[in-house]
Amino acid sequence: MASVPPPSPEAQLSFLAKLQRLFAEGDFTATYKFALLIALADLAVELGADDGSALRLATRQIGERFIQQYWRQSLDYGTGRAGALPGVLAQNLGDQAAVVTAIKAFRARTGINMPWQAARHPDYRALLSKVTQTVSAQPLKFLQNFGGGNDPFLYERTGPGQLVLNPGVAYCLRRFHPLVQQLARTHWVGHVKSNKLNRGILGEADDLEDFLFRISRQSLVAFCAGLRKIDGDNCFYCGGALREVDVDHYIPFSLYPRDMAHNFVLAHRACNRSKSDMLAARRHLERWLERTVKRGDDLAEVGSGAGIVGDGPTILRVAAWGYESVRKSGGRAWVSPLRFEDVGVECTSLFDG
């Protein structure tokens, strides 16, 4: 199949302008639309290509992402917080969001605490069906309504359980992924904070964004212990013995804000802070790719026990996208404190095998 040219610079600017209008002029009575934008952006990175082709998706795929996004948000927030009463945060201006209610009922019925364990339970199919129906009937139907009209600039519904991202949309979602994520998450946090139903739960909240979108500290501690058994007690980057240890996102969270087991490495706090939001240089990439392939099953198992998704093929596609994006923008990679190098084809070619 012939490659489709990427959208022109003018078309990309038009996409951003419409996205801005969607946030400014859209009707957001619940957080579903923010979750949908995050899901579409993630799926574009993981399944799309750097050309202008359309991308076919199943609504079931989006339903799975909704379960992952809302899983932790079906837990009580505010436990032990002064001036706050523990409770599940309202994601809707009226009755609690149906997705949250369905997940909470599933958890109470099955006793399952980890979303990746949930998929193995016989009742998961019914949960996924219910969530997918909600997604189809609500955010997928109404997301592209803004400014008093409907502008299907993102996708078209092509049949029961199917949609297609319009030509050029997957490319734009991939290119502007950090921006889309930041906009959606910022508005999501703002929506939850401004909802009067949450006032008694939030109190003086200062960690709301972490609660909504990051893995819990308890899960991270459990994963760190398992990661030590796989990788040992040395910093992934400099090789020195670990004393104060950080669990670092190899592909920076700022670039791709989704926690995945294969993307975590153990690092010195100093190395982690120095690397910050940068990609790592080729010497690190080569070892990370080898580790991801050779120890992939071990990483998935440790991640499952800590409630962190393990998906080696997906994180490899994400990494290929990340390095190619930074290469095209003329970005640099982190070698060690105060040492950097260009991201060139010698990095991106490592994903061709």
From TrEMBL:
<dbReference type="InterPro" id="IPR003615">
    <property type="entry name" value="HNH_nuc"/>
</dbReference>
<keyword id="KW-0378">Hydrolase</keyword>
<feature type="domain" description="HNH nuclease">
    <location>
        <begin position="222"/>
        <end position="273"/>
    </location>
</feature>
<protein>
    <submittedName>
        <fullName>HNH endonuclease domain-containing protein</fullName>
    </submittedName>
</protein>
<dbReference type="Pfam" id="PF13395">
    <property type="entry name" value="HNH_4"/>
</dbReference>
<keyword id="KW-0255">Endonuclease</keyword>
<keyword id="KW-0540">Nuclease</keyword>
<dbReference type="GO" id="GO:0004519">
    <property type="term" value="F:endonuclease activity"/>
</dbReference>
